[in-house]
């Protein structure tokens, strides 16, 4: 018979044949498939009639495969195994969770902790969107956001405080080598100051006029310049805590300034929450809040 390569026998008939071929018994195949013995025999007979070939020899006790049946069983079993493996891979893939964060939060807090997150949540694939733009949870398909914001929050949003903006002045130890720390405000003014888009130096130094120094549109860039010994940067303590502990940066002044708004973990309330999103939310609430 002439058949298209996409023309297949009925799936139920193939399942009946494959089970009967492995078991060499219609009754055992029927028990495996959860149908009657007569249904299995009927499906196999229909398959044989479709092909015009005998796939089994019916014996007094059970079945024996014909040469045609033996060859066909090997291919059909392989096909079912391939389908089962493909289905397992589909269902076993990591669940994707998308988190939107400012570039500084992403580079200073999230990325350094990815290994810890994947160790704790191995079945989750975290996608990070680094942007200063407020996310639309539906349009941008964002599950969780970390944002600099303040209450009150809309009723459809859930928010949890991560940390407040406690600003500290830090620099490379090479820049302040030989200086007696901590520096006074006047001594601090004599060093090159690095400014980010928030530019809170006037708050810390109680200055009404803009202070000179290199300016960057992201805190991350100002921090990179500080690491390179180009000046002193004013940054949220959470973003430099690891650098201070490792000695890559040092506090150059005891002065601090706590300002608003604060960093919050935010997500849309849902009547059917996803377990993966809940797991990432709980991990962030614990790990980032300790930053």
Description:
The chain contains eleven helices and nine strands. Helix content is about 40%, strand content about 25%. The chain has about 290 residues and is of the alpha/beta class. The chain is rod-shaped.
Structural class: alpha/beta
Multimerization state: single chain
Quantity of strands, as a count: 9
Order of helices and strands: HHHEEHEHHEEEHEHHEHEH
Which term fits the overall shape? rod-shaped
Query: Proportion of β residues?
Result: 15-25%
Question: Count of helical segments?
Answer: 11
What ranges have pLDDT less than 50 throughout 5 or more consecutive residues? Answer: none
- Fraction of residues in H or I helices: 40-55%
Q: What's the Cα radius of gyration?
A: 33 Å
Could you list some keywords that capture this structure?
single chain; 291 residues; alpha/beta; seven-stranded mixed sheet; two-stranded antiparallel sheet; 24% strand
